[in-house]
Design brief:
globular; EC 1.-.-.-; binds flavin-adenine dinucleotide; FAD/NAD(P)-binding domain; 4 helices; alpha/beta; oxidoreductase; four-stranded mixed sheet; 11 strands; 21% helix
Length: 202
């Protein structure tokens, strides 16, 4: 016997948690189930940058305050080899570790009324007007927010899409005068970062 939910959202990352908030904003009494294979706080490979438009979306969902305590950044610097460009951005951005940001967001979704369950989804099938997930959860509205390797997409809408891999390298903010593993000093004498693990072409 499967549990019946108004909305099931697979994946409680930014997409899933925002979707839960949006549903509950429209229908405060909706029974919304958020499923995630991870327990929060959890990290995610990411540059952790939040564009101003992200803040606009968070504001529209009533959770703009989750960036509180983090410094808004106005200056952007791009470097390649010996070239560096730097300028002020029209609107500030934030850099918040996903371990923090995603946790705050999912907590807001739960506060708004979503039910968060730790569950790794393996399969989904259509059954009449409903979708049944792992023979355990049944809903008429399924939102797939389970990331780049979506199990839901593979189950319900398989494609031969392209695959990619990505990696990240945190950048030290207080480097030595010379960056270990690189040819010389940072290209910009005032720059405060080295990227020893970066390779040409990355
Ligand atoms: C190296 C790198 C740098 C990036 N830098 C930035 C950046 O600076 N700024 C920016 O805006 N974006 C950045 N991105 C993109 C950003 O990470 C993604 O766009 C964002 O994470 C997508 O959010 P999401 O909620 O759709 O998916 P995710 O954040 O991937 O969340 C998916 C969730 O689904 C869960 N899940 C997955 N499979 C299952 C399953 N079978 N059952 C249950 N749960 C499941 C996962 O545990 C996860 O919590 C970067 C990406 C990479 C790879």
């Amino acid at each position: 016997m499967s549990e019946e939910w108004d909305v099931v959202i697979v994946g409680a990352g930014p997409a899933g948690s925002s979707a839960a908030l949006a549903v509950l904003q429209e229908q405060p009494n909706a029974r919304v189930l958020l499923l995630d294979r991870a327990t929060f706080p959890r990290d995610k490979s990411c540059g952790d940058g939040l564009a101003p438009q992200v803040i606009d979306v968070l504001d529209s969902l009533g959770v703009g305050a989750i960036v509180d305590g983090w410094t808004p950044l106005r200056e952007l610097e791009l470097s390649r080899g010996s070239r560096t460009v730097r300028g002020l951005m029209a609107r500030p951005v934030y850099v918040i570790p996903r371990e923090v940001f995603d946790t705050r967001l999912v907590e807001r979704a739960v506060s708004a009324g979503a039910h968060l369950a730790h569950h790794r989804v393996r399969d989904a099938r259509v059954d009449g007007a409903s979708v049944v997930i792992d023979e355990q959860f049944r809903t008429r509205a399924l939102i797939s927010a389970d990331g780049a390797h979506s199990v839901i997409r593979a189950s319900l809408a398989p494609t031969q899409g392209r695959r990619a891999i990505a990696a990240r390298q945190p950048v030290a903010r207080t480097p030595p005068a010379r960056c270990p593993g690189t040819a010389g000093t940072p290209s910009n004498p005032t720059a405060t970062s080295c990227m020893p693990a970066m390779r040409p072409g990355w």
